[in-house]
Amino acid sequence: MTLAVSRDLGTAAVAARVAGLRKEFGSTVAVxxxxxxxxxxxxxxxxxxxxxxGPNGSGKTTLIRMLLGLTRPTSGDVELLxxxxxxxxxxxxxxxxxxxxxxxxxPFLSGRxxxxxVAATEPLLATRAIPTxxxxxxxxxxxxxxxxxxxxxxxxxxxxxxxxxxALLLPRRLVVxxxxxNGLDPAGTRDVRGIIAELHAGGATVVxxxxxxTEVEATCTHVAVxxxxxxxxxxxxxxxxxxxxxxxxxTTPDADxxxxxxxxxxIGAYRDDADEPAVVVPAGDAPEVxxxxxxxxxxxxxxxxxxxxxxxxxxxxxxxxx
Length: 322
What we know:
- It comes from Pseudonocardia charpentierae.
- This is ABC transporter ATP-binding protein.
- One of its GO terms (molecular function) is ATP binding.
- The chain is built from 11 helices and 15 strands.
- The chain has helices spanning about 60-65, 90, 110-120, 130-140, 155-165, 185-200, 215-220, 235-245, 255-265, 285-295, 310-320, and strands spanning about 15-25, 30, 40-45, 50-55, 75-80, 85, 95-100, 175-180, 205-210, 220-225, 230-235, 250, 270, 280, 300-305.
- Helix 3 (about 110-120) crosses helix 4 (about 130-140) and helix 4 (about 130-140) crosses helix 5 (about 155-165).
- The protein starts with 13 loop residues before the first strand and ends with a helix.
Protein backbone atom coordinates (compact mmCIF):
# COMPACT_ATOMS: atom_id res chain seq x y z
CA MET A 1 0.00 0.00 0.00
CA THR A 2 1.36 3.44 -0.97
CA LEU A 3 0.10 6.52 0.86
CA ALA A 4 0.50 10.01 -0.61
CA VAL A 5 1.90 12.59 1.80
CA SER A 6 0.27 15.91 2.59
CA ARG A 7 1.91 19.04 1.16
CA ASP A 8 0.04 21.61 3.28
CA LEU A 9 3.34 23.12 4.46
CA GLY A 10 4.51 23.60 0.89
CA THR A 11 7.54 21.96 -0.70
CA ALA A 12 11.27 22.50 -0.43
CA ALA A 13 14.40 20.99 -1.91
CA VAL A 14 15.42 19.75 1.52
CA ALA A 15 13.23 18.08 4.13
CA ALA A 16 15.64 18.94 6.93
CA ARG A 17 18.72 21.13 7.27
CA VAL A 18 21.17 21.77 10.08
CA ALA A 19 23.88 24.43 9.97
CA GLY A 20 26.69 24.84 12.48
CA LEU A 21 24.86 22.46 14.80
CA ARG A 22 26.54 21.74 18.11
CA LYS A 23 25.39 20.12 21.35
CA GLU A 24 27.38 20.05 24.58
CA PHE A 25 26.50 18.38 27.86
CA GLY A 26 28.82 20.09 30.31
CA SER A 27 32.33 19.35 29.11
CA THR A 28 31.13 16.56 26.80
CA VAL A 29 30.63 17.40 23.13
CA ALA A 30 27.83 15.14 21.82
CA VAL A 31 27.53 16.77 18.38
CA UNK A 32 30.20 19.01 16.86
CA UNK A 33 33.96 19.24 16.66
CA UNK A 34 35.46 18.22 20.01
CA UNK A 35 38.68 20.18 19.33
CA UNK A 36 37.07 23.50 18.49
CA UNK A 37 33.77 25.33 18.21
CA UNK A 38 32.68 24.06 14.78
CA UNK A 39 29.28 22.44 14.36
CA UNK A 40 27.99 20.13 11.64
CA UNK A 41 26.16 21.01 8.42
CA UNK A 42 23.77 18.54 6.81
CA UNK A 43 21.00 18.75 4.21
CA UNK A 44 18.49 15.90 3.91
CA UNK A 45 16.94 16.04 0.41
CA UNK A 46 13.17 15.95 0.14
CA UNK A 47 12.04 12.42 -0.76
CA UNK A 48 15.34 10.80 0.22
CA UNK A 49 15.83 7.77 2.44
CA UNK A 50 18.82 8.73 4.54
CA UNK A 51 20.71 6.21 6.64
CA UNK A 52 22.33 7.83 9.67
CA UNK A 53 25.33 5.71 10.60
CA GLY A 54 27.97 5.76 13.29
CA PRO A 55 29.39 3.80 16.21
CA ASN A 56 27.67 3.93 19.59
CA GLY A 57 28.18 7.36 21.11
CA SER A 58 28.74 9.05 17.76
CA GLY A 59 25.87 11.51 18.27
CA LYS A 60 23.18 10.00 16.02
CA THR A 61 20.34 10.04 18.55
CA THR A 62 21.29 13.48 19.86
CA LEU A 63 21.22 14.82 16.30
CA ILE A 64 17.82 13.24 15.71
CA ARG A 65 16.47 14.73 18.93
CA MET A 66 17.64 18.20 17.86
CA LEU A 67 16.04 17.73 14.44
CA LEU A 68 12.72 16.99 16.13
CA GLY A 69 12.96 19.82 18.63
CA LEU A 70 13.24 17.44 21.58
CA THR A 71 16.64 18.85 22.55
CA ARG A 72 17.84 22.42 22.06
CA PRO A 73 21.24 22.79 20.40
CA THR A 74 24.04 24.60 22.19
CA SER A 75 24.57 26.52 18.95
CA GLY A 76 23.56 26.31 15.31
CA ASP A 77 20.30 26.24 13.37
CA VAL A 78 17.76 23.51 12.59
CA GLU A 79 15.17 23.67 9.83
CA LEU A 80 12.47 21.02 9.44
CA LEU A 81 10.12 20.97 6.44
CA UNK A 82 11.16 24.54 5.67
CA UNK A 83 10.47 25.88 9.18
CA UNK A 84 12.90 26.78 12.00
CA UNK A 85 13.00 24.41 14.95
CA UNK A 86 12.10 24.18 17.76
CA UNK A 87 10.13 27.43 17.31
CA UNK A 88 7.83 25.86 14.68
CA UNK A 89 7.40 22.49 16.38
CA UNK A 90 3.64 22.83 16.80
CA UNK A 91 3.14 23.54 13.10
CA UNK A 92 5.65 21.02 11.76
CA UNK A 93 5.54 17.93 13.97
CA UNK A 94 2.02 16.80 12.94
CA UNK A 95 3.60 16.06 9.54
CA UNK A 96 6.41 14.04 11.13
CA UNK A 97 6.28 10.47 12.40
CA UNK A 98 9.06 9.38 14.73
CA UNK A 99 10.31 6.40 16.69
CA UNK A 100 13.17 7.59 18.91
CA UNK A 101 14.99 5.68 21.65
CA UNK A 102 12.38 2.94 21.80
CA UNK A 103 8.62 3.15 22.30
CA UNK A 104 6.97 4.13 25.58
CA UNK A 105 3.42 2.95 26.26
CA UNK A 106 1.13 2.17 29.18
CA PRO A 107 1.96 -1.41 30.30
CA PHE A 108 -1.56 -2.37 31.41
CA LEU A 109 -3.30 -1.22 28.24
CA SER A 110 -3.51 -3.29 25.08
CA GLY A 111 -1.61 -2.39 21.96
CA ARG A 112 -4.83 -1.16 20.35
CA UNK A 113 -5.78 0.96 23.36
CA UNK A 114 -2.31 2.48 23.53
CA UNK A 115 -2.38 3.33 19.86
CA UNK A 116 -5.84 4.89 20.14
CA UNK A 117 -4.51 7.19 22.88
CA VAL A 118 -1.66 8.25 20.62
CA ALA A 119 -4.04 8.75 17.69
CA ALA A 120 -6.25 11.02 19.81
CA THR A 121 -3.33 13.47 20.12
CA GLU A 122 -2.82 13.72 16.33
CA PRO A 123 -4.15 17.13 15.22
CA LEU A 124 -4.42 16.04 11.57
CA LEU A 125 -6.45 12.92 12.35
CA ALA A 126 -10.22 13.36 12.67
CA THR A 127 -11.83 11.61 15.66
CA ARG A 128 -14.09 9.53 13.43
CA ALA A 129 -11.05 8.31 11.49
CA ILE A 130 -9.15 7.05 14.54
CA PRO A 131 -10.47 3.45 14.67
CA THR A 132 -9.66 2.83 11.00
CA UNK A 133 -6.26 4.52 11.25
CA UNK A 134 -5.35 2.42 14.30
CA UNK A 135 -6.45 -0.85 12.73
CA UNK A 136 -4.59 -0.05 9.50
CA UNK A 137 -1.38 0.83 11.34
CA UNK A 138 -1.54 -2.33 13.46
CA UNK A 139 -2.01 -4.53 10.41
CA UNK A 140 0.74 -2.69 8.56
CA UNK A 141 3.33 -3.60 11.20
CA UNK A 142 2.04 -7.15 11.71
CA UNK A 143 0.42 -6.62 15.12
CA UNK A 144 -3.18 -7.29 14.14
CA UNK A 145 -3.42 -10.69 15.91
CA UNK A 146 -1.81 -9.28 19.09
CA UNK A 147 -3.59 -5.93 19.11
CA UNK A 148 -5.74 -6.69 22.15
CA UNK A 149 -2.98 -8.15 24.31
CA UNK A 150 -1.56 -6.01 27.12
CA UNK A 151 1.58 -4.09 26.24
CA UNK A 152 3.45 -5.48 29.26
CA UNK A 153 3.21 -8.94 27.72
CA UNK A 154 4.74 -7.87 24.43
CA UNK A 155 8.20 -9.03 23.40
CA UNK A 156 10.85 -6.42 22.60
CA UNK A 157 10.15 -6.86 18.90
CA UNK A 158 6.39 -6.42 19.39
CA UNK A 159 6.96 -3.26 21.41
CA UNK A 160 9.13 -1.95 18.61
CA UNK A 161 6.41 -2.76 16.07
CA UNK A 162 3.85 -0.82 18.13
CA UNK A 163 6.19 2.17 18.25
CA UNK A 164 6.54 1.97 14.49
CA UNK A 165 2.74 1.81 14.15
CA UNK A 166 2.42 5.07 16.09
CA ALA A 167 4.66 6.77 13.52
CA LEU A 168 2.48 5.45 10.69
CA LEU A 169 -0.98 6.47 11.89
CA LEU A 170 -1.37 8.87 8.97
CA PRO A 171 0.60 9.90 5.88
CA ARG A 172 3.71 11.88 6.90
CA ARG A 173 6.04 14.25 5.12
CA LEU A 174 8.96 12.95 7.17
CA VAL A 175 9.42 9.72 9.12
CA VAL A 176 12.35 9.39 11.54
CA UNK A 177 13.21 5.88 12.77
CA UNK A 178 15.91 5.42 15.40
CA UNK A 179 17.02 1.76 15.28
CA UNK A 180 13.64 0.54 13.99
CA UNK A 181 14.75 -3.10 13.71
CA ASN A 182 15.90 -3.35 17.33
CA GLY A 183 14.57 -6.63 18.75
CA LEU A 184 13.02 -7.76 15.48
CA ASP A 185 13.57 -11.17 13.93
CA PRO A 186 14.56 -11.48 10.24
CA ALA A 187 10.92 -11.47 9.15
CA GLY A 188 10.29 -8.28 11.11
CA THR A 189 13.39 -6.70 9.61
CA ARG A 190 12.07 -7.49 6.13
CA ASP A 191 8.74 -5.94 7.09
CA VAL A 192 10.49 -2.71 8.11
CA ARG A 193 12.37 -2.70 4.80
CA GLY A 194 9.03 -3.01 2.98
CA ILE A 195 7.50 -0.18 5.02
CA ILE A 196 10.45 2.11 4.23
CA ALA A 197 10.05 1.29 0.54
CA GLU A 198 6.32 2.14 0.73
CA LEU A 199 7.05 5.46 2.44
CA HIS A 200 9.65 6.33 -0.18
CA ALA A 201 7.29 5.40 -3.01
CA GLY A 202 4.64 7.65 -1.47
CA GLY A 203 6.95 10.66 -1.52
CA ALA A 204 7.90 10.76 2.17
CA THR A 205 11.40 11.51 3.38
CA VAL A 206 12.75 8.84 5.72
CA VAL A 207 15.65 9.10 8.16
CA UNK A 208 16.85 5.75 9.53
CA UNK A 209 19.44 5.32 12.24
CA UNK A 210 20.67 1.73 12.16
CA UNK A 211 23.58 -0.58 12.90
CA UNK A 212 22.44 -3.03 10.20
CA UNK A 213 24.57 -1.84 7.29
CA THR A 214 23.18 -4.42 4.88
CA GLU A 215 19.67 -3.07 5.51
CA VAL A 216 20.84 0.52 5.05
CA GLU A 217 22.51 -0.41 1.78
CA ALA A 218 19.34 -2.16 0.60
CA THR A 219 16.90 0.62 1.53
CA CYS A 220 18.66 4.00 1.63
CA THR A 221 19.38 6.50 -1.14
CA HIS A 222 21.66 8.70 0.99
CA VAL A 223 23.86 8.24 4.05
CA ALA A 224 25.39 10.42 6.74
CA VAL A 225 28.24 8.97 8.80
CA UNK A 226 29.02 10.37 12.24
CA UNK A 227 31.97 9.68 14.50
CA UNK A 228 32.60 11.28 17.89
CA UNK A 229 29.97 13.90 17.12
CA UNK A 230 31.49 14.93 13.79
CA UNK A 231 29.98 14.36 10.35
CA UNK A 232 32.76 12.56 8.47
CA UNK A 233 30.91 11.66 5.25
CA UNK A 234 27.52 12.35 3.67
CA UNK A 235 25.86 12.23 0.30
CA UNK A 236 24.13 9.95 -2.16
CA UNK A 237 24.96 6.35 -1.30
CA UNK A 238 25.70 5.24 -4.85
CA UNK A 239 28.04 8.18 -5.37
CA UNK A 240 29.96 7.49 -2.17
CA UNK A 241 30.40 3.83 -3.04
CA UNK A 242 31.42 4.60 -6.62
CA UNK A 243 33.97 7.17 -5.43
CA UNK A 244 35.52 4.52 -3.18
CA UNK A 245 35.59 1.88 -5.91
CA UNK A 246 38.96 0.16 -6.35
CA UNK A 247 40.12 -2.86 -8.28
CA UNK A 248 38.17 -5.02 -10.68
CA UNK A 249 35.59 -7.77 -10.82
CA UNK A 250 36.14 -10.04 -13.82
CA THR A 251 33.34 -12.37 -14.84
CA THR A 252 34.73 -15.52 -16.42
CA PRO A 253 33.97 -19.25 -16.64
CA ASP A 254 37.73 -19.82 -16.18
CA ALA A 255 37.91 -18.41 -12.66
CA ASP A 256 40.52 -20.85 -11.32
CA UNK A 257 42.83 -20.23 -14.27
CA UNK A 258 42.35 -16.47 -13.91
CA UNK A 259 43.29 -16.54 -10.21
CA UNK A 260 46.36 -18.70 -10.88
CA UNK A 261 47.47 -16.43 -13.75
CA UNK A 262 47.20 -13.23 -11.73
CA UNK A 263 48.84 -14.66 -8.62
CA UNK A 264 51.74 -15.90 -10.76
CA UNK A 265 52.21 -12.25 -11.78
CA UNK A 266 52.11 -11.13 -8.11
CA ILE A 267 48.65 -9.61 -8.51
CA GLY A 268 46.32 -10.53 -5.68
CA ALA A 269 43.05 -12.14 -6.75
CA TYR A 270 40.37 -14.46 -5.40
CA ARG A 271 37.20 -16.18 -6.56
CA ASP A 272 33.78 -14.78 -5.75
CA ASP A 273 30.93 -16.91 -7.03
CA ALA A 274 28.12 -15.14 -5.16
CA ASP A 275 26.19 -14.38 -8.37
CA GLU A 276 28.21 -16.09 -11.11
CA PRO A 277 31.82 -17.26 -11.52
CA ALA A 278 33.96 -14.17 -11.08
CA VAL A 279 37.41 -13.10 -9.96
CA VAL A 280 37.97 -10.15 -7.65
CA VAL A 281 41.17 -8.18 -8.13
CA PRO A 282 41.36 -5.73 -5.17
CA ALA A 283 44.17 -3.68 -6.74
CA GLY A 284 45.94 -3.58 -10.07
CA ASP A 285 46.14 -1.76 -13.37
CA ALA A 286 43.03 -2.72 -15.35
CA PRO A 287 44.65 -2.94 -18.82
CA GLU A 288 47.50 -5.05 -17.42
CA VAL A 289 45.07 -7.43 -15.75
CA UNK A 290 42.96 -7.89 -18.88
CA UNK A 291 46.04 -8.44 -21.10
CA UNK A 292 47.42 -11.09 -18.72
CA UNK A 293 44.12 -12.96 -18.64
CA UNK A 294 43.55 -12.90 -22.39
CA UNK A 295 47.11 -14.06 -23.12
CA UNK A 296 46.59 -16.96 -20.70
CA UNK A 297 43.47 -18.05 -22.59
CA UNK A 298 40.99 -16.87 -19.96
CA UNK A 299 37.58 -16.11 -21.44
CA UNK A 300 36.80 -12.63 -20.09
CA UNK A 301 33.06 -12.05 -20.30
CA UNK A 302 32.96 -8.78 -18.36
CA UNK A 303 35.30 -6.53 -16.38
CA UNK A 304 33.97 -3.79 -14.15
CA UNK A 305 35.17 -1.61 -11.33
CA UNK A 306 34.82 -3.25 -7.95
CA UNK A 307 32.31 -1.34 -5.89
CA UNK A 308 32.80 -1.76 -2.13
CA UNK A 309 30.00 -2.81 0.17
CA UNK A 310 28.74 -0.19 2.59
CA UNK A 311 30.28 -2.22 5.42
CA UNK A 312 33.75 -1.83 3.87
CA UNK A 313 33.29 1.91 3.33
CA UNK A 314 31.98 2.36 6.88
CA UNK A 315 34.97 0.50 8.32
CA UNK A 316 37.41 2.64 6.38
CA UNK A 317 35.69 5.85 7.47
CA UNK A 318 35.29 5.02 11.16
CA UNK A 319 38.17 2.68 11.90
CA UNK A 320 40.85 3.86 9.50
CA UNK A 321 40.84 0.52 7.70
CA UNK A 322 42.96 0.81 4.54
